[in-house]
Amino acid sequence: MENKKRFYITTPIYYPSDKLHIGHTYCTVATDAMARYKRLTGCDVLFLTGTDEHGQKIEDKARDAGVSPQQFVDNIVQGERGILDLWKLMNISNDRFIRTTDDYHVSAIQKIFKKMYEKGDIYKGAYKGKYCKPCESFWTESQLVDGKCPDCGRPVEDAEEEAYFFKLSKYADKVQDLLENTDFLEPKSRVNEMVNNFIKPGLEDLCVSRTSFTWGVPVDFDPGHVVYVWVDALFNYTTALGLFNDRYDDYDKYWPADVHFVGKEIVRFHSIIWPAMLMSMEMPLPKKVFGHGWLLLDGGKMSKSKGNVVDPYVLAEKFGVDALRFFLLRTFPFGSDGNFSNEALIGTINVDLANDLGNLLSRTVSMVGKYFDGQLPAARKEDALDDELVTMASGLRGRYEEQMEHYAFQNALAEVFKVIGRANKYIDENAPWALAKDMDANGDRLATVMYNLLECLRISAILLSPFMPASSAEILRQIGACGCCSNWDSAAVYGSLRADAVVVRGDNLFPRIDAEKAVAELEAIAEQAKKAALPALELEPQLEEKVDFDTFCKSDFRAVKVKACENVKKSDKLLKFTLDDGTGVDRQILSGIAKFYKPEELVGKTLMAIVNLPARKMMGQESCGMLISAVHTEKGEEKLNLLMLDDKIPAGAKMC
Ligand code: MSP
User: pTM for the full model?
Assistant: First the structure.
């Protein structure tokens, strides 16, 4: 054990603010495949995952749900169909699971914070800036994009409070050097993004404490402050090994990590802030941060609020855990974004698993059963027809390893499936059914053909085991491979399967899916989930009083186009609209909606207005009509949306 190469790999720790979706599952499955691969190659692996449970977002959600923050996160982490259940279902082989609310972690974070403070790298100041609550990120005005969070595009809020700062600027040069001159961050494309967007414009010191909420690790030497959630979160990778705590004691053994797998939007935290803080703590840096892409849905990010998250439970239960794991890593290049679709999932299952792998297995096993009663004879007769297949399968482990060492899961799987495809073609070329017609003359040749097929299945199953652990074990069982010819070493030695291995027929591992039916079922489930995700609206009560039809018809509703829009001076409510109402004369309407829209957002839009109200004056200006909006209240907050019409509708068109 002591001589084994160590390999420490982590996933990001997940926010238990909502149930996890297929995007989160993607990263954990990838990490699991890498951990299993490293174990297969003989490494002593530590695979860590966990949950990042502090922060204002969790505190707010718990309040909305009427429970304590701890109860709230407990439910999402360990409740039914929670995060722990999901990882169990997905056959995730993590060795450790950290929760940032665990006592040992909390006290270790306090010590880490104090150490950086005593060193002078954390100092007290006043924080004034912008805060994106969903991302738990502080931004300066200059970092905002169109006034919104540069990461998620959502509105930010003003924040001003006494706070501690980390001297990130002090480490800017060293971090830039790390990114530009080492392989610390991959894929390489992410290096330019970090250096050009964040370091070159000037790294500012980072606000690392908050006083406006309490759900966090308290700064023990200054009550009222809680540690910024990202400081708390990033150090999980080391507290989970025992840094500044007695819970674990293998920090010296496993740190520095071999690789942190992280999604692209959190590369900034892992490749700039994390190394800078480790430099401050005078700790070794992780060997690598790999920033993977996102799984997109219809080209956009999945999000609970859009109601377009894909539920991994639904897919795993419907298609099988291994099929889902396989699909995620076979279909999308790990470093780039990929578009998730039910059609792609079903297509991959049908083509790769049912047609290619499943068929190869069931045909081979059933032929060995039919022609040899499940056990091959020892006699062999080789042929030049075998050469290509045998050469491909013999070199497969090397080609696969080359790809896996670069985290290129998709390419590694492509190598395996080239051999599987070639083996299916080999069946057709050798037509075992024809050979079987004259067993006296062709028995030896048929045994050779069958043996080659079993060998291809054996080597493929070993190499597929990090991706599809249960199915691979079942393939090895069906082809009669024992422990010593199911390991990593034997995957490089063609001919390791005993000549007289006993083959047993088993279940069809990957049944073909009726795509049309399955897609329709999934769409119905998604539709239901979307409805369930819609926020409960608090609507105005409907009026009982009736208006007679003629009176209603007198109201003149028209399409109007916004030519100009500006804030009314000295009013924080009113916007002044100059509108084209189709008459050729500009119409002016004032509307009390400045809280909901910026004037520039509305220019060019086609809106609906009632135009035959008597003119009235507001703040000394005339308003001729009223713009129509939808209003409702959400979680006690007033919401307003102007009724926007299709731009094809001409100005002045009458609404009836
Ligand atoms: N809590 C932080 C991580 C702290 S690590 C010290 C966090 N949590 S998260 O739950 O929001 O996201 C966890 C991971 O899931 C991130 O790496 C994120 O990129 C990944 N994904 C979330 N949605 C995703 C997709 N749609 N596709 C792929 N990965 C995505 O960030």
Answer: 0.81
- What the block records as the tokens of 123 is 């100092």
Six token digits for residue 175: 């971090």
- Residues 534-550, mean pLDDT to the nearest whole number: 61
Closest residue to atom 15 of ligand 1, CA basis: 24
| Count of CB atoms situated within 10 Å of the CB of 86 | 21
Q: How far is CA 656 from CA 71, 300, 303, 648, 652, in A?
A: 52, 36, 37, 17, 12
Distance 263 CA to ligand 1 centre (A): 6
Q: How far is the CA of 14 from the centre of ligand 1 (A)?
A: 6
Pairwise CA distance, residues 330 & 579, whole Å? 54
Cβ neighbours for 3, distance < 8 A, ≥ 6 positions apart: none
First to last CA, the chain: 80
- Name the one residue in this structure whose structure tokens are 């700062």: 165
Q: List ligand 1's pocket residues with C-beta within 6 A.
A: 12-15, 23-24, 26-27, 52, 233-234, 236, 262-263, 265-266, 294-295, 302
Nearest atom, ligand 1, residue 21 CA: 23
Residue 270 three-state SS: helix
| CA-based radius of gyration for the chain | 31
Classify residue 84 as exposed, middle or buried by CB count within 10 Å of its CB (0-12, 13-18, 19+).
Answer: middle
* Beta-bridge partners for 163: 125
Residues forming a β-bridge with 263: 292
Angle at 262 between CA 257 and CA 267, to 5 degrees: 100
**Within 10 Å of residue 206's Cβ, how many Cβ atoms?**
22
Non-local CB neighbours of 17 within 8 Å, separated by 6+ positions: 57, 58, 61, 76
- Give CA–CA dist 293/328, Å, rounded: 12
Give the atom of ligand 1 at the shortest distance from the alpha carbon of 265. 19
- What does the CA dihedral 528, 532, 535, 540 come to, rounded to 10 degrees? 80
3-state SS of 330-397?
HHCCCCCCEEECHHHHHHHHHHHHHHHHHHHHHHHHHHHHHHHCCECCCCCCCCHHHHHHHHHHHCHH
For a substitution probing ligand 1, which of 10, 11, 14, 339 has the most ligand atoms within 8 Å of its CB? 14
Residues 232 and 226: their CA atoms lie apart, in Å, by 10
Q: How far is ligand 1, taken at its centre, from the CA of residue 12, in Å?
A: 6
Could you tell me the domains of the chain?
Answer: 337-491 (1.10.730.10), 549-642 (2.40.50.140)
Give the model confidence (pLDDT) of 578-629 as tens digits: 999 999 999 999 999 998 999 999 999 999 999 999 888 888 888 999 999 9
Residue 453's closest CA among 474, 487, 483, 429? 429
Q: What confidence tens digit (pLDDT) does each residue in 307-331 have?
A: 778 999 999 999 999 999 999 999 9
| 534 has pLDDT over 70 | no
6 CA from centroid of ligand 1 (Å)? 26
CB-based contacts of 177: which residues, under 8 Å, 6+ apart?
A: none
Q: Which atom belonging to ligand 1 lies closest to the Cα atom of 15?
A: 10
297 three-state secondary structure: strand
Q: Ligand 1 centre and the CA of 137: distance in Å? A: 14
Strand 96-99, strand 289-292: pairing:
unpaired
**Cβ count near 487 (within 10 Å):** 15
CA 211 to chain centre: 30
